[in-house]
């Protein structure tokens, strides 16, 4: 595994980020909501806690958390994983040497130091009045020299980039679609973008803040690079309206008949949003949902301690008992939102209701076919996402 980047040594001189200064800086950037970079420091303490070769060699079910990407193209997992789904360290290193970047999702569920940093940022944002839809999440990107991983894209959440080792050149554009609620449906091209807002190289200790909706891309220079991202999904006005609906009858009422394809002047929506009690209750609900998600990933298990194999008889439970939001539709369809989990489809409506209603269950109880293969695959995914946790018998 020597081809993969190891933990960088501590900087020999200069200024290192303290956790207090780093968190305060991130809070200020997120409150400002503008593209910004910071290069006054040259080291991150969290860098020594991240061992890329060890993560690859010791984690299981790699398809759920690891991708290998080159110039926007994802390498099929069958090329670099073992039959049971674990990464083959030798094949991963070979793909890395061939120019593929490693993208490790949900790093906060795997590295305690990253989980601790995410929790501190969570709390600091809450103290600053920034309402998040879910807890801070982290990904890791390890790229060989001269490589481009992800294609030009924008995200549906704010992203803070922390450069741990090596160098990476970034290009960030002004938003082409302000305040997006989801990722773009297609890859972007430079001609799709507006003016360039930032272009520069991040070195160890460098920090770049990219608000949601800002297209960006990056590539390494002559040296390999490792950086992590901290993603913040802030609550929107749409979240507030949806949360206020249970408390405001006007928001739940049917739309009036249209007049020439348009709505007549109707002040009910405005009155509902000016209802102090409904808005206060909605804000309380949103804050409670964030509080629940902040408990997820409170500390990943030690990867040196093997867990018992998952079987149809294994017991699992939701980590966030009150977070599930089930929306049932007139056509029999249903949507379930639970932190990162969004499942929809009439075929799965019974499954979504089951996950919404049951806080603890055995794998074989899931109403999903073919059993037990589909049941085990879904539970493995939800365990990896931090939505479920194992219950010791």
Keywords:
393 residues; alpha+beta; Jelly Rolls; Malonyl-Coenzyme A Acyl Carrier Protein, domain 2; nine-stranded antiparallel β-sheet; three-stranded antiparallel β-sheet; 28% helix
3D structure, described in words:
- The chain is of the alpha+beta class.
- It folds into three domains: 19-232, Cupin (Jelly Rolls), CATH 2.60.120; 237-260 and 269-293, no CATH class; 315-391, Malonyl-Coenzyme A Acyl Carrier Protein, domain 2 (3-Layer(aba) Sandwich).
- The protein is built from eleven helices and 15 strands.
- Helix 1 (19-32) crosses helix 5 (112-127) and helix 6 crosses helix 9 (276-294).
- It is globular.
- Residues 295-306 and 338-342 have low confidence and may be disordered.
Question: Could you outline the blueprint of secondary structure elements for this entry?
Answer:
Layout: H1 19-32, E1 36-38, H2 52-58, E2 66-70, E3 73-74, H3 77-80, H4 89-97, E4 101-104, H5 112-127, E5 137-143, E6 158-173, E7 196-202, E8 207-210, E9 216-232, H6 237-244, H7 249-252, H8 268-273, H9 276-294, E10 315-318, E11 325-328, E12 334-338, E13 341-344, H10 349-357, E14 360-362, H11 373-385, E15 388-391
Antiparallel strand pairs: 1-8, 2-3, 2-4, 4-5, 5-9, 6-7, 6-8, 6-9, 10-14, 10-15, 11-12, 12-13
